[in-house]
Backbone:
């Protein structure tokens, strides 16, 4: 079955409660996201999910040269950063998009849906 | 030389069978690339062979068989080692599909794939014209004034996304079908409008795009005869296209509705459009769902095409229809069209007040300035009208429209 990465994007600017405007909002988002995760598990879509520490805690590494180059901060400086993600299995993109819409509502973030490579697509790459 | 009846048969087969063959192969092999290429090859063989061998008794069946053979040839070439496996699979899949009603037509699935909301509008238009309309990449590129390589890339990328992201080859669930259909109709109407009101280039009307949009509209109507908006869009396109020949003068100038020679309108298309509008009126009167924007626009065009002369136009009915439009689509463009109807009913002074309210929203839109210029002209405010015509000409992309606006401006009293 196709696998999709659902990346959650939220504002880089943080309050005391991360990307949420208030503690109540944060608690409600956690509760809704928890309920959404339970549903993913129950309905057989869930592969993995987790939240990330703020982008300010990221370190960018380029190991292609002789010695690795380390940079403090995320790879791209943008106003929105990835704040968490799901990996799901779904029969097709329509199902994945519908789940992403529900997940977006639950966690209060915009979601990018992207398919994983498959054995077939990698084989096609090797053949080309 | 190809005998003319062979030419005609090839054109007819292309119109009638292309989408069916692409859609059938796409279902059987689950690969749009393969379906497209094999279909194109089958038509190329027909072009070569029919002039000598004669037109086969069942051209559609002949083309389907040939395309299917081409697809299998390609699969064999590409994957010698898997050929037995493939052959075995296709023995199973070769069973004709169960006749389960029009909604399961392969072409309908293909329409929903090509117009999937996960694809950009540009990609949807290009895919729809290529896979359903059978237009060549060169034809589509020419129609949209983009380089062929750009257009080819657009199609390749879209097909790549459909495959990699597993966009389903399916008619959406009943709960989503109305919303998804709105997206499909938007693609068809965009193609029609780009043909009818070419926004750039040297041609006033790009006939192939209009014809293709109407063909797609007819196909949708055949597949979904009970959908009001599908019927409405087809009626709207027919009633608009019926005026095509009266709309541009011999010198390439746009002729507005009130100045058109109504004898030049296509009565056959008008009768067909009116019949569809009446069908919808009856369905709504019988308790069907309220008409959407395409049905309302079709009704407005039915009122216009019903009037023997511009003077006879029933503007109060048109205003009532625009009032209903404004309820479902309160956009400034709808309000501009409504203001034009108000001008006809209540005079240019009232109309101008309505139009001027839209200045902030529509200042960069040529039709806004053209409508304003016309009202100012009627009020005898030549200087203001001239400035408005200048703005309209600057924003108009269509050459026939520019020619018309320029003449109107130059006819103003000094």
Residues:
């Amino acid at each position: 079955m196709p696998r999709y990465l659902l990346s959650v994007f939220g504002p880089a600017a943080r309050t005391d409660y991360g990307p949420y405007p208030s503690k109540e909002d944060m608690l409600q988002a956690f509760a809704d996201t928890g309920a959404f995760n339970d549903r993913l598990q129950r309905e057989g879509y869930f592969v993995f999910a987790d939240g990330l520490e703020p982008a300010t805690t990221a370190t960018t590494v380029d190991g292609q040269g002789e010695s690795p180059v380390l940079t403090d901060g995320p790879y791209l400086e943008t106003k929105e950063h990835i704040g968490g993600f799901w990996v799901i299995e779904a029969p097709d993109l329509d199902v994945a998009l519908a789940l992403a819409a529900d997940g977006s509502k639950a966690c209060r973030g915009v979601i990018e849906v992207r398919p994983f490579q498959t054995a077939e697509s990698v084989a096609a790459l090797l053949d080309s | 030389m190809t005998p003319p009846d062979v030419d005609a048969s090839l054109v007819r087969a292309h119109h009638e069978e292309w989408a069916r063959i692409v859609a059938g192969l796409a279902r059987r092999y689950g690969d749009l690339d393969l379906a497209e290429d094999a279909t194109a090859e089958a038509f190329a063989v027909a072009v070569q062979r029919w002039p000598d061998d004669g037109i086969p008794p069942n051209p559609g069946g002949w083309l389907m068989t040939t395309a299917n053979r081409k697809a299998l040839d390609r699969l064999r070439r590409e994957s010698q080692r898997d050929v037995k496996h493939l052959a075995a699979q296709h023995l199973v899949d070769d069973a004709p599909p169960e006749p389960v009603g029009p909604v399961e037509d392969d072409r309908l699935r293909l329409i929903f794939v090509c117009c999937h909301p996960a694809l950009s509008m540009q990609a949807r238009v290009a895919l729809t014209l290529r896979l359903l309309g059978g237009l060549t990449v060169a034809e589509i590129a020419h129609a949209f004034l983009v380089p062929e390589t750009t257009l080819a890339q657009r199609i390749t990328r879209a097909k790549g996304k459909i495959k990699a992201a597993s966009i389903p080859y399916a008619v959406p669930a009943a709960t989503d079908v109305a919303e998804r259909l709105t997206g499909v109709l938007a693609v068809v109407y965009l193609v029609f409008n780009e043909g009818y009101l070419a926004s750039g280039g040297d041609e006033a009307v790009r006939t192939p795009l209009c014809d293709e949009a109407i063909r797609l509209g007819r196909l949708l109507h055949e597949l979904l005869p009970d959908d009001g908006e599908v019927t409405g869009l087809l009626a709207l396109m027919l009633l608009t296209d019926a005026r095509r020949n009266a709309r541009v003068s011999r010198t390439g100038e746009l002729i507005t509705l009130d100045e058109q020679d109504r004898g030049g309108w296509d009565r056959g298309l008008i009768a067909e459009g009116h019949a569809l509008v009446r069908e919808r009126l009856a369905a709504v009167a019988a308790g069907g769902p309220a008409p959407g924007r395409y049905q309302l626009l079709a009704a407005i065009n039915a009122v216009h095409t019903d009037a023997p002369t511009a003077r006879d136009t029933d503007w109060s009915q048109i205003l009532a229809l625009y009032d209903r439009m404004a309820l479902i689509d309160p956009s400034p463009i709808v309000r501009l069209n409504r203001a034009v109807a108000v001008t006809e009913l209540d005079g240019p002074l009232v109309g101008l007040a309505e139009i001027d309210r839209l200045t902030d929203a529509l200042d960069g839109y040529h039709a806004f300035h053209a409508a304003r210029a016309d009202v100012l002209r009627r009020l005898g405010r030549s200087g203001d009208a001239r400035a408005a015509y200048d703005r309209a000409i600057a924003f108009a992309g269509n050459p026939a429209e520019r020619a018309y606006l320029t003449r109107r401006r130059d006819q103003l009293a000094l």
